[in-house]
Write a structure and sequence with these properties.
Number of strands: 17
CATH architecture of the largest domain: 3-Layer(aba) Sandwich
Strand order of the largest sheet: 1-3-4-5-2-6
CATH topology of the largest domain: Rossmann fold
CATH superfamily of the largest domain: P-loop containing nucleotide triphosphate hydrolases
Largest sheet: 6 strands, mixed
Helix content: 40-55%
CATH class of the largest domain: Alpha Beta
Strand content: 5-15%
Structural class: alpha/beta
Distance between the termini: 91 Å
Radius of gyration: 39 Å
Shape: extended
Length: 765
């Protein structure tokens, strides 16, 4: 409500509250407002002395008529009359002072109301109120500004905001601010442009500069200046006809040249290139060039590095009119200092408490898990969000406060219902309950944000926020809850049979992931073994356990060299360059993913070289130059290399050599673990068949199924497991066993016993 009041008007209102407390009155009224005006505003006080009205004689008359209270009141209640005076003052200010309420507005509104204690006392002192009213109304009208500057209409005065303490403090940017001050103090080419990545604090530096100007801590030639922020959207808005935009820009530039106390700030300054440039018209950048060359105005710009190169650097005439100031990410010590200084601001806003040692954790996690943002923006973002997250939690006092408010609403509704039914006795009872509840609520409100009742932020809150923002599970949250590690091994052993060594290797690395001890690179496996032994099955089952986002690629589709565009996008100039449908785009939005590369040996060498970089550095640059981070991914590759033919003796050594020869020693050395799968044994294939038969029993619950060992032996022999592994098992069971079951269900039989399938087709193994 009081945002549009001048500082002097706000001080008068505060002084009115003090007068009320000193007189021990139960409310703040028009008489206290007049006392404050007579005491504080020299201009009005000097004029009223001529009419015989002073602070002392008005206060003595007030005490004589109203008296002094017996008890000091700590609550500030405005009388309805004073509320009307404030509302009238705000309405009048919109008509003659651009909505800014002054003390003169307050006094003229008090006279305009024509009633209240203050007016009665003034009448009792024989003052001519009509004469006073006309005197101050005329004064306000005379002070009305004739033509407001267009730059004030389109822009925001940052210096005024700094005076009103509406800006956060800026720490650790002394060198950059000094450089900007030096450029602004130059005789010519005094237009700095701040260049840096999004989030490094370019706009914050200009805000800090505004604050320094407001307190006078700047060179002599910059004192009493104003920094006005203008955006091109508001400048273009409303210019329907050709020539209107150019006229508006030209008028704004003329104002800047005639008013050397204004420094214009354009955030995202690259938007001036092409702004308003309709057919036959010139854009804003070409209108600005001559004005900047004349050195009669000062302009501060801010833009990102990429947009500077794209828009401004290409226009050499525009570029040479600016002096570049590069803004880099702050170092760790500066960043910590920034967060420690602004911590109090966020604590006061959210009514929470955060210990200093948690600032280190915020910096660490923001650097580790947030890749697409820059410091200090991403660290401040986490600080703000974690404070908001904790502040909305209900503590004991908040729960009680909300409960009492709910009860109060119910009591008020019951009271209204009783009054409608003319039950005044019950209405009185409800009124008493309402007063008691209001008293309890008021007491709670006083203690609600006391330091002893504020919620403390914990490590777990920070972990949770970072995990939610990045979609990366931060397992440090649940270090004590790691019981599922053993259950993972059991789950995998129940699905993939005969590969206990491979499962042990996979679970070993899963422990590192689960406990948060992973290195700053992706995990990678190469599953090597004969066809049908369970490499892809283990990869799929493990991927589903570890991550919700699984990307499976059949590398036989990437035999051609141009297929690399499916992964990182098409090169510039080719069809599909502007599309964002490449596979690795998914990693940007789901950094914690499992990538399964089936039959990796079939991929083209260009594809293998691409993954060589991913395994080595954990990052990749796509066709548009954007960096994709793979440091939180798990890459599982499968291959049959070295296992195509059955060999006798020194099997493992020969297989290792063939794998290294196929993929190359440098590539193989960058794989975290090469896991060799065992060949399929008779016991393993027997377990797989039994598992599939159990699935049939769950599928066909209406019939009792019994399969004898002789039938299972036939399936084992038909499967030719030593050559094909378990691949033919499902096919045989579906074609033979399931067909028998279905035929018996059709015949309405309740059970089926399968002793043999057809012995004629037995194959010796």
């Amino acid at each position: 409500m009081f945002n549009n009041f001048t500082e002097e008007a706000r001080k008068v209102l505060i002084e009115a509250k003090r007068e009320m407390q000193n007189l021990k009155h139960p409310y703040v009224g028009s008489e206290h407002l007049l006392l404050a005006i007579l005491k504080y505003n020299k201009d009005i006080k000097d004029k009223l002395i001529k009419y015989g009205l002073t602070y002392d004689n008005f206060k003595s008359q007030l005490i004589k008529i109203i008296g002094v209270g017996s008890k000091k009141n700590n609550y500030f209640l405005y009388t309805p009359l004073l509320k009307r005076i404030l509302e009238t003052a705000m309405i009048d200010s919109k008509e003659n002072n651009n909505g800014c309420v002054t003390v003169n507005h307050l006094f003229s509104s008090l006279l305009e109301e024509g009633e209240g204690v203050a007016i009665r006392i003034m009448i009792g002192m024989n003052l001519d109120l009509d004469e006073l009213y006309h005197l101050f109304i005329t004064k306000i009208t005379k002070n009305k500004k004739g033509n407001r500057l267009i730059i004030d209409e389109l822009g925001v005065d940052l210096t005024k905001q700094a005076i009103d303490n509406k800006m956060d403090p800026v720490i650790g940017r002394d060198e950059e601010i000094k450089r900007v001050l030096e450029i602004l103090s130059r005789r010519k080419k005094n237009n700095p442009i701040l260049i840096g990545d999004a989030g490094v604090g370019k706009t914050a530096i200009v805000e800090e500069l505004s604050r320094l100007i407001s307190i006078g801590e700047v060179p002599r030639n910059l004192k009493n200046k104003r920094i006005v922020s203008v955006d091109m959207a508001s400048t273009v808005a409303g210019t329907k006809y050709r020539g209107e935009f150019e006229e508006r820009i030209q008028r704004m530039l003329n104002e800047l040249e005639n008013n050397d106390d204004i420094i214009i700030f354009i955030d995202e300054i690259h938007t001036i290139v092409g702004a308003g440039g309709a057919e036959g018209a010139i854009d804003a950048s070409n209108i600005f060039k001559p004005a900047l060359a004349r050195n009669k105005m000062r302009l501060i710009g801010a833009t990102t590095t990429a947009e500077y190169k794209k828009f401004i650097e290409n226009d050499r005439a525009l570029e040479r009119r600016f002096q570049k100031v590069y803004i880099n990410e702050p170092k760790y010590d500066k960043l910590k200092e920034i967060l420690l200084k602004i911590k109090k601001t966020y604590e006061d806003y959210h009514h929470v408490l955060i210990k200093d040692d948690l600032i280190d954790l915020i910096i660490k996690l923001s650097n580790k898990y947030i890749y697409d943002r820059k410091q200090p923006d991403k660290a401040i973002d986490i600080l703000d969000e974690v404070c908001a997250h904790v502040s909305i939690k209900e503590n004991k006092i908040m729960k009680k406060y909300n409960k009492l408010n709910k009860q109060l609403k119910e009591i008020i509704n019951l009271k209204k219902h009783a009054l409608l039914n003319n039950d005044f006795k019950m209405a009185t009872v409800y009124k008493d309950k309402e007063n008691k509840l209001m008293d309890m609520i008021n007491r709670l409100e006083l203690n609600l944000y006391d330091d002893t009742n504020l919620t403390h932020i914990k490590k777990e809150d920070i972990y949770k926020i970072v995990s939610n923002k990045t979609n990366i599970p931060i397992y440090e949250i649940n270090k004590e809850n790691i019981k599922d590690i053993t259950s993972v091994k059991n789950k995998l052993n129940n699905v993939v049979f005969g590969q206990s060594k491979a499962i042990d290797e996979v679970v070993r690395s899963y422990k590192q992931i689960k406990l948060g001890y992973r290195e700053d690179k992706c995990f990678s496996y190469l599953f090597a073994g004969c066809s049908g032994v369970g490499k892809t099955l283990l990869a799929k089952k493990y991927a589903k356990i570890v991550s919700k986002n699984v990307i499976k690629l059949d590398m036989s589709e990437y035999i051609e060299p141009h297929s690399i565009s499916k992964l990182i996008g098409s090169p510039a100039g080719y069809v599909g360059y502007d599309d964002s449908k490449n596979i690795f785009d998914k990693i940007k939005y789901n950094p914690f993913s499992v990538i399964i590369l089936d039959e990796f040996d079939k991929a083209h060498n260009n594809i293998k070289n691409l993954f060589f970089q991913i395994l080595d550095e954990g990052i990749l640059t796509d066709s548009k130059g954007e960096i994709i981070n793979f440091k939180n991914t798990i890459i599982i590759m499968t291959t049959n290399v070295g296992f195509e033919q059955k060999e006798i003796g020194f099997k493992t050594d020969n297989n290792d050599k063939k794998i290294k020869n196929t993929f190359g020693m440098p590539f193989t050395n960058r794989i975290d673990k090469v896991i060799l799968f065992d060949d399929m044994s008779r016991d393993t294939i027997y377990k797989i068949i039994k598992c599939n038969i159990d699935k049939l029993r769950k599928k066909y619950t209406d019939i009792k199924i019994k399969v004898y060992k002789s039938a299972i032996d036939e399936i084992i022999n038909l499967s030719n497991y030593k050559e094909y592994g378990a691949r033919k098992v499902n096919k045989i069971i579906k074609q033979e066993i399931e067909e028998i079951i279905i035929n018996n269900i059709i015949k309405d039989k309740k059970s089926v016993c399968i002793k043999n399938i057809y012995s004629k087709k037995l194959v010796k193994v």
